[in-house]
Amino acid sequence: MHIAKNSVCIWYDSGAEEAANFYAKTFPDTRVLAVSRAPSDNPSTPAGAVLTVEFTLMGIACIGLNGGPAFKHSEAFSFQIATDDQAETDRYWDAIVGNGGEESMCGWCKDKWGISWQITPRALSRAMEAGGDPAKRAFEAMMTMKKIDVAAIEAALRG
Question: What is the value of pTM for the model shown?
Answer without folding.
Answer: 0.93
